[in-house]
Amino acid sequence: MESKRVKQILSSSADIKVTYNGVNVWIDSVSEDGQTATVHLRGPLEERSVVPITELMEQE
Q: What does pTM read for this prediction?
């Protein structure tokens, strides 16, 4: 995924499904350099991870 799309998803009120390594995640933020994003699993767990945005996939 591109940095521009990550920022669009963050500012959207729609429930846009995104996966990281095949797992559904919420995007919390994107780094200033646009290379990484902070994400957490959809569901009760609040564990956050910093991942490369190129490994995020938007699901249709």
A: 0.86
